[in-house]
Predict the structure.
Amino acid sequence: MTTRMALALRHVHFEDLGSFAGPLRAAGFEIEYRDVGDENYLSFDPLEPDLVIVLGGPIGVYEDEAYPFIAGEIAMLQARLAGNRPTLGICLGAQLIARALGARVYPSGLKEIGFSPLSLSAAGEASALRHLADVSVLHWHGDTYDLPASTDLLASTSLIAQQGFARGNTVLALQFHPEAQAGAAFERWLVGHACELATAGLSVPGLRADARRHGPRLEAAAASMIGEWLENIDG
């Protein structure tokens, strides 16, 4: 199997590839992380990596004055998307892809945090997301976006209509967190987002218990989902 390179852009250390790392390696990808703040964070040819994965983070796409690197990420994504190169975005990463495609990203006015199932569209049911049908996935966001032109809506929830979209086989943007792992790894999320959870009045023990209850099924379904998507990417 020819080794390919997956470049993951990471905004906070605990929001990593999680359960996606294993399926990526099984599909023949060598994983390289670039962390925000690294001198070489965006110093690569946008078209060169076989796959670029933009991970989540607790900032808004519209906060580019406070976080100037956001403009660089959007420019990188615009070049990559123009070349139709395989690209995956999760949470903030999905919002950055939406913005790079010309869509508006903005606060939703609420916090959707916790485990709940998706409502798949017809396009979602015909996509790799079919593996997530009736599976409680992790939601952790307060922003949303308008569906970009020339993309297909894949999933929604009762709170947030935009939960995922695709452009052909090469671009996948997921507002939720299918990569999240239960157990010790999830504890890093609870600590890292402690202020947000306290402000929202959410129960840390309750989220921990939900992760233990839903995590194993989510991890198995997410592995099937990302595995199928990786089999079909082209570009």
About this structure: The longest strand covers residues 105-117. DSSP finds seven helices and ten strands in the chain. The beta strands are 4-10, 29-35, 51-54, 87-90, 105-117, 119-120, 136-145, 152-156, 164-167, 171-174. The mean pLDDT is 97.
